[in-house]
Amino acid sequence: MRALAVPNIISIKKLLTSVCLTLSMASTLSHAVNTPLEDKLPLDTVVIMDSSGSMKQTDPKQLRKPAAKLFISLLGNQDRLSVVSFSSKAWPITYLTQLENDKQLNQALRATDKISHKGMHTNIHSAIEKGIEFLKESDQINREPIIILMSDGQMDVGNAEKSAQLRTQIFEDLLPKLIEHNIKIYSIAFTEASDQELLQEIAEATDGRYALAASDDVLHKVFSKIFEQTKQPDMLPLNENKFIVDASINEITIIANKSSENSQIYLQPPTGEKINSTFKSEKIKWFVSTSFDMITIKKPDEGEWKILFSDDDNRAYIVTDVKLRTQFEFNEDSYQPELIIKSWFIQNEETEANQELLKSMEVALEIEHPDDTIETFPIEAANEQGEFIIHFKPQLDGIYGAAIIAKSRTFQRQQIFSFKNTMPTEPEPVEEVIIKEEVIIEEPEALPIDEEPEEDITKILIYFGIFNVVIIFLGLNGFLIYRHFKNSKATPETSNEEE
C-alpha cells in the first residue's frame, strides 16, 4: 500500500465491496471462509474504462480518473496492473505490469489520463474479452485476477442485431471462461440507463460486486471499497473524524471526502497545528481532487489526529507492526445462516499474546443491516489463544456491512467487510422422530396359589386326629364285639361235651 484512508462503518452499503460472502445453506458454500491478509495472493488487476462519447455527459468532470488513481496508489509492489480503454473495441493503454517501483506506478497513474470520451459505441463484449486475455493465466501462477469494469451504457456496436448477439455471447461464452479462470468482475454502472442487469449478473456470477455510481462524488468510494475487499488492509476507526495513532504505525493513508468542490481539507496532528495540501514535508504526500484528498504520512506522530472540514465516511489505512486480523466461516451445524467471526492481533507475523493489551481492549462487531439500521454487539474477552469470537445470525436478505472495531485508550484498529445473505426459502425441516412401539410380551400370569392360613392347617390336624380316634374306637369296639360273640358261641359247645 502506497497511500490512502480510513472508514468508520460503511454508510453507502450498496457500494460495499469488502470481503464478499454469500450466506445460504447451499452445500457449495460450506467451505467459504475469508483469507487472513498474510495468505492473500498478490493482485492482477485490469481496470477497464468506458471511453464512449456518452461519458462526456455521465462523467463530465472525468472523476473516474482520480478514482482509478486512488485504487492504483493503494496497490502493493507485488501487485500487477493493466489499464484498458474501450468503446467500439477494447485496447490496452498499459499491459499487465508489476508495480514494483515508482516508475511503474507513475506510468500506471498517467495511463488513466489517456482515457477519453470520444468513442462511438460501447462494446462491453470486447472489453471483457480483453480482460480475460490478460488474466487467463494469473490463477495458475498464484495470483488473484480481477477486472474492474466501468460503463455508462448498453451493449452497442452500432447494429442492434449484432449487439444483441454479442450480449448473448457474454453469458454463453465469456462468463464460463471468467469462472474457469477464477476471474472476478467488479462492475460499476454510471447511470440507471446502463445495462445494469448485465453488469450485475456477471459480477455476481464471478463472486465480484456490482455498484451503481449514480453521482460522480461517490465513485472514489466505490474504488476504496474494492480495495478493502481485495486487499483487506489494516485500518483505524474514525470517531467524528478523529483517530488515534500508536507507536507501531509506520505509515498512514487518509482518504478525506469533500463536501463540495471548493472544500479544503486540513489535518490537525497531536501537536495542535493545522496543515493542508500546501504544507511541505518529506514525510507527507498530499493528492488533491475535486471530490476527495488522499494524504500519506510516514511515521506519523503518536496521539489523536483530526480531519477538519471533511465530509463523512472517510478512511484511514495503515502500515503497522501490530495488526488486527479477522477470519470468518459458516456454522455448518446451523440450518439458519450463521457467521462465526474470529479476530486476533499479530505482531511481527506472530500472534500477539500481550495479556495486558488484550485485557484493556474493547472489541465490538458493528453491523449495518440491509434496511440501513445499525447494531453494535460487544465481543467477550479474548480466550486463551488470544482470539475474540462472536456468532452472528442475519435475519434479512441482502447486503450487510460490518466492522470489527478494537479500542483502548492509546490503541485502535478496525477491519471492515461486507457479505450478502440469502435466507432459506423453505422452513427448517423438522427431524422425523420415529417412535418405535415397545412390544410388550405378556408373560402368562401364574395361577394363584391359595395359601392356607395357619389356623386352617390346625383345624385339619384336629379333624384328622378326631377321625383317627373315631376309627380306632370303632375298630376296638368291633374287635371286642367280635370276640364277645365268638366266646359266647364257644361256651355251649363246651357244655355239650362235658355232658
UniProtKB/TrEMBL annotation:
Q: Which Pfam families is this protein grouped with?
A: GBD_Hemicentin, VWA
Query: Sorted alphabetically, which SMART domains does this protein's record hold?
Result: VWA
Q: Which of UniProt's keywords are assigned here?
A: Membrane, Signal, Transmembrane, Transmembrane helix
Fetch the CDD domains from UniProt: vWFA (cd00198)
Which species does the entry assign this protein to?
Answer: endosymbiont of Galathealinum brachiosum
Q: Can the keyword rRNA-binding be found in this entry's annotation?
A: no
Report the protein name in the record: VWFA domain-containing protein
- Gene3D superfamilies, from UniProt? von Willebrand factor, type A domain
Entry annotated with the keyword Transmembrane helix = yes
**Which residues are in the VWFA domain?**
44-230
- Its transmembrane ranges are 460-482
Signal sequence, start to end = 1-32
Please name the InterPro entries in this protein's record: CLCR (IPR051266), GBD_Hemicentin/VWA7 (IPR056475), VWF_A (IPR002035), vWFA_dom_sf (IPR036465)
